Amino acid sequence: MNDKTARQKILDAAATLFYNDGITATGINTVTAKADVAKMSLYNNFSSKGELVDA
Length: 55
Fold this sequence. Notes:
The chain is 67% helix and 0% strand. The chain has helices at 6-21, 28-35, 39-45, 49-54.
């Protein structure tokens, strides 16, 4: 059972993608797909890609 919160899943996915592919090349859709969360979950936790990068 995966007990990570949506926020933690997003942060983990974004960190991996930003490291591997670069921040500019990584889109929100890619992050949500890797995190297996809805786009609305991302925007409920982060107001923008910039805020996600800063987290």
